[in-house]
Amino acid sequence: MDCGIKTERVSETGISVADEGASTGWEALLVGGLVVAGGEAVLLLLEGGDGWRKAMLHPAADPLFRGATLDGLTMAALAVGRDGMFAGQGTAPLWVQRFPGMAEAAMVVRGGTGWNGPGPEAARTLGLLAEIPGLRRLAEPGRRLGGRIENMALVLDLVVLVNSVDGFREALLKVVNEVAARCGCQRVALGWLYGGFCRVRAVSHADQVDRKSGLIALLEAAMDECADQDVEIVLPAGEDDDAARRDHDALQAETKSQGIASLPLRADGKGVGVLTLEREGIWTREELAALRLTADLLGPVLAGMERRSRWLGARAWHGLRENAAKLLGHQHTGWKLLGLGVVVAVVVLFSCGMTYRVEATFIVETDGVAMVTAPFDGFLDEVAVRVGDDVAKGAALFSLDTKELSLQEAQMAAEWRHQTATALKAEGDGKLPDLRIAEASAAQSLAKLELVRFRLSQALVKAPCHGVVIEGDLREKLGAPVRQGEVMVKLVQLDELFLEIQIDERDIDELTADASGEIAFTADPSQRLACRIERIEPATQTRQAGNVFVARALAVDGVQAWWRPGMGGVAKINVGRRSFWWLLTHRTTDFLRMKLWW
């Protein structure tokens, strides 16, 4: 195979690599991949003419990966066909990392019990590591990859060293000093982005950063120039390099450095810092490629360490911002819209609402009712009104037959005259006892005569008040006998109509005596008339629908001309604003409280 290294089969521990430079590069690559992934062992697989072979193993004595040939589990892992997780039943989990552009090479990381593979950041870093062997395609035809692999090994060694340091500040110092030593730089500075501006956090060969120094100001300006454009800036610039470099020119003029390179550090696709290097010589393409890889590998590692070094409040705020970014991002749009809809629905249900109205039935009633009765026993003679007639006060309603009363009047008048004459004769004869008897009989006859005449005066019955006849269709009873006190006609006064609202006892606790609402008559549902409750009776009444409280209400705009007692409809009484959730569930809640109460 042509992959830049030579392999041959050896003992059960693996296959040795003849090219020492390449061997060093691959070993550093494997160690770096193992550290990034957080596994327990890593295996480099190469495919030759006779199948897959183990090219390198770290550590060499790993019990699962030992052996001259591949076991079935490893073959199954490679059969996944892509980078990712694989775990056989009862075996340790494996992570397969293939090398882009090299179908004949793969790296397999083994984890221990409970290992769930590298995290998202570590997986991206492994992908960057896998790009290293592909750099050989940047070399001119015929040039060996040994020197470049050695440079990459140095990069991986740097990543391992940074991961072994505790603390963000110590890691920055380790980075700038190691890069300065390995690249032959007179100065390496690392700046970190805070609020969109770079602040120098570490300078090679210096324990502290002198912020009063003019050089630090020039470095931070150059770093801002690199971070704002999010591109690497190299001096001297190439022919196709069109990036702005005014601040870098000022830095070069001040430090007299021949070669300056500023590379952005990124994590999760966003800039987090800038690495600026100064040295006497110019930068080669291979060196810049190695620096790019260094920046790409160090960015996520340093960003994670910087987050962990913050105080608790800052870490919480950063986590909140990250989660908010994920929430507001473009991924999983359907689920986010569904979640947003649920949140909006919950907010609307609990914080928004409308005026709740208790529904009840009502009947038009009146206090002004007149019962017109028969004044004496007799026979119905004439009827002047019908049900529904509007009669004025004093208008004739009906009359009783007076023939018998007229005869009684004549008889009583004759008897009174007779007794009067008898009294006069007894007085003339001087018979005092007979006089007293005659006078008493005359007085008795006169009283009977006055009674008959009084009944005659009542024979024509008149309306006691202005009103409407609601009962008493007497035309079918002409000539029929009537008894004294029998109700003949019922009158109601329309100017004293009111509304009798029957409220279910379930809703009585929501109402007050001055509540307002609207009514709609069954006779004319299109009209909505305002009403106001005046009084609620303190006791319930049993009706067909159950126990109800009777409330007396008046129409705000007054009684309409077409209203009649006994008319009814639906009333809706306002009881205040309630949330939509309460409107939807209060009946069910009350029911469950009654059923589940003990």
What's the helix and strand layout?
Blueprint: E1 7-9, E2 15-17, H1 20-37, E3 41-48, E4 51-58, H2 72-78, E5 84-86, E6 94-99, E7 102-110, H3 120-130, H4 146-163, H5 168-183, E8 187-194, E9 197-203, H6 214-229, E10 233-235, H7 246-255, E11 259-267, E12 270-279, H8 285-309, H9 312-328, H10 333-351, E13 353-366, E14 369-373, E15 378-383, E16 390-391, E17 396-400, H11 403-429, H12 432-458, E18 460-462, E19 467-471, E20 481-482, E21 487-492, E22 497-504, E23 516-521, E24 524-543, E25 546-555, E26 568-579, H13 580-596
Antiparallel strand pairs: 1-2, 3-4, 3-7, 5-6, 6-7, 8-9, 8-12, 10-11, 11-12, 13-22, 13-26, 14-21, 15-17, 15-20, 16-19, 17-18, 19-21, 22-25, 23-24, 23-26, 24-25
Helix pairs in contact: 1-3, 1-4, 3-8, 4-5, 4-8, 5-8, 6-7, 11-12
Helical fraction equals: 25-40%
Count of all domains: 4
Approximate shape: rod-shaped
CATH fold topology of the largest domain: Beta-Lactamase
CATH class placement of the largest domain: Alpha Beta
Average pLDDT taken over every residue: 81
Corresponding CATH superfamily of the largest domain: GAF domain
Q: What are the low-pLDDT stretches, counting only 5+ consecutive residues below 50?
A: 1-20, 136-147
- The tally of helices reads 13
Strand content: 25-35%
Q: Kindly report the spatial arrangement of strands forming the biggest sheet.
A: 13-22-25-24-23-26
Verbal overview:
- It contains 13 helices and 26 strands.
- The protein has helices at residues 20-37, 72-78, 120-130, 146-163, 168-183, 214-229, 246-255, 285-309, 312-328, 333-351, 403-429, 432-458, 580-596; strands at residues 7-9, 15-17, 41-48, 51-58, 84-86, 94-99, 102-110, 187-194, 197-203, 233-235, 259-267, 270-279, 353-366, 369-373, 378-383, 390-391, 396-400, 460-462, 467-471, 481-482, 487-492, 497-504, 516-521, 524-543, 546-555, 568-579.
- Strands 13-22-25-24-23-26 form a six-stranded antiparallel beta barrel. A five-stranded antiparallel β-sheet has the order 4-3-7-6-5.
- Strand 6 (94-99) and strand 7 (102-110) form a beta hairpin.
- Helix 1 (20-37) packs antiparallel against helix 3, helix 4 (146-163) runs parallel beside helix 8 (285-309) and helix 6 (214-229) runs antiparallel to helix 7.
- The longest helix is centred in the C-terminal third of the chain and has 27 residues, at 403-429.
- Residues 1-20 and 136-147 have low confidence and may be disordered.
